[in-house]
Amino acid sequence: MDLDLDYTNLQEEFQNLNQLAASIADTDISLVNLIDSYTQWTVSHFGMDLIQMPREESVCQYTIKSENPLEIRRLDKDVRFKDKFFVSGNGNDLDLKYYYGIPLTIESGENIGALCVLDKEEKKMTPEKIQQLKFIAAEIVEHLKLKKQLKIKRLEVHEGLKTRNKLAHDIRGPLAGIHGLSELALEDELTKIEMISYFKMIGESSTQLLDLTEDILNANTSKKNPAAGKIRIKDLGDKIIQLYQPQAAYKNIVIEVDIPTKDEEMKVYMDSLLQIIGNLVSNAIKFTPTGGKVKLGLSKGIADDIENLEIRVEDSGSGFSAEKIKNILDGKGISSMGTSGEIGFGLGLKLVKSMVEEMGGDFNISTIENSGGRLKMTVPQY
Fold first, then answer.
1. Which CATH class is domain 7-125?
2. Bridge partners of 269?
C-alpha cells in the first residue's frame, strides 16, 4: 500500500515509541522501518542515525515476509548478514549482534515495514516483552493509518473549497446578466416583443447555467472520461451564446461565434469546456466597454498527430498590459474592475490557464494596445 507520506516528517512523531521499545527490549537501538520495492526507509530511529538503505541490504526485508516476529540472536553468525556494514564493523562502532523485528501489518494484511530493536549483545526476548513490543507496533500502524486518513480528508476539504470557489466565480457573470436583463424586462417602456426576447434569453441562459454548474461539480469524476459525453462544436458555441447572452446584452455587447463550416459537425469532449470557454467569454465581456464586441472562435486542429480543439477569444476592450500578461502566465490572479464596475477576484484566467495545462493543452495571451485582448488555447481531444 502506498501511504503517500512524508517519511522525513515522522522522526519526532515516533521518537517516544522508539525509546519505549528500546527500553522494553533492553537494547541500544530501536527503528521504525517502512519498506517499498527497492528501499528501506527508517522513518524514526533511536540509538542509530539511519535514513535509508537498499532493501536487499536490510534485515527487515525478511521480517515482512511473515506475519510472525523475526529474532536473530547472532547476526555475525548468519551468512545473510555477517558481512553487512552494521555487523562486521569495518571501522564503525556498530558491530551489532542481536535483532528482533515485528512486522507492521495494515488492515489488508500487507506488511509495510517493521519495528525492530538491535543490540551489540546477544539477547533473548521474553513473552512479556514480545507482547509489549507488539502493542507498540500496532500503535505505529494505527498512527500511520490515521495520518493517511487525515491527509485524505484535508485533500477532500481542499478540493471542496476549490470547487466552491470555481462555482462561485463561474456563475457570477451569467447570474449578473440574468439579473440585469430581468430588471430591464420590467421597465414600462419595453414592447411586448422586447420583453419576450429578454425572457427567452433569461430562460436559455438559466438552462445553460445548470449545465455549467453540473460541469463544475462533476469535474473531478469525468476527467477525459468517455462517459462525460461529446458535443458538436456548433452546439458548444450555441451553449456559450445562450449562457452569456444576458451578460452581454445588459452591456449592449455583441457576441459572435466563428466556426469553420467543415468543423461544425465535429465532436469534442464536454469535459470542463463550459468552464474554460465560459470564463474567457465572461472575462472578455467584463473588460469590453458598452457597445463593444466579443468574438469566440472554435475549430478542430491537429498537433503532433493529436486532435485538439482550438479556442480563440478576442474583444474590443483596452487589452492587457505587459505586466498583466506576465502575471497571468505566472499564475498570479490579480483583481481588477470591469468597464462597468464589475467586481473581479483575479481567479478567471488563472483558473483557465491551470485547467488547460492540466489537460495537456497550451494557453497563450497577447494584446494590441487599445485594440483589445487576444487569447488562444488548444485542448487535446484524447
1. alpha beta
2. 230
117 within 8 A of 22, measured Cβ to Cβ: yes
- Cα distance between residue 2 and residue 366, in whole Å: 44
Per DSSP, the three-state class of 140 is: helix
- Cβ–Cβ < 8 Å for 141, 104: yes
* Amino acid of residue 324: K
Spatial distance between the Cα atoms of 348 and 338, rounded to a whole number of angstroms: 13
> Do the domains at 7-125 and 153-380 have one common CATH topology?
no
Could you tell me which residues are beta bridge partners of residue 367? 373
Determine the distance from the C-alpha atom of residue 36 to the mean position of all C-alpha atoms in its chain, rounded to a whole number: 24
Question: Grid coordinates in use for 376?
Answer: 488562444
Rounded to a whole number of angstroms, the distance between the first and last alpha carbons of the chain is 30
pLDDT at site 214: 72
The full DSSP string for 91-106 is TSS----EEEEEEEE-
Q: How far apart are CA 180 and CA 294, in angstroms?
A: 19
Residue 121: how many CB atoms within 10 A of its CB? 11
Q: Which residues lie closer than 8 Å to 169 by C-beta, 6 or more apart? A: 279, 345, 347, 348, 351
**In this structure, what C-alpha cell is assigned to residue 212?**
455549467
Q: For 153-380, CATH number? A: 3.30.565.10
Query: In the block, which residue shows the cell 469524476?
Result: 221
How do 39-46 and 29-35 pair as beta strands?
antiparallel
Higher pLDDT, 75 or 316: 75
- State residue 222's pLDDT score: 44
Model confidence, pTM: 0.50
Strand 293-303 to 362-367 pairing: unpaired
- CB-CB contact of 309 with 300 (8 Å): yes
Lookup: cell for 240:
456559450
Reported as a single tens digit per residue, the pLDDT across 270-289 is 777 888 888 888 888 888 88
Domain extents in the chain: 7-125, 153-380
Angle at 310 between CA 307 and CA 314, to 5 degrees: 175
Q: Which three cell numbers stand for residue 149?
A: 486518513
Q: Is 67 helix (H, G, I), strand (E, B) or coil?
A: coil
pLDDT score at 346: 44
Taking each helix axis from N to C end, the angle separating 192-217 and 273-286, rounded to the nearest 10 degrees, works out to 130
Cα–Cα–Cα angle for 308, 313, 316, nearest 5°? 165
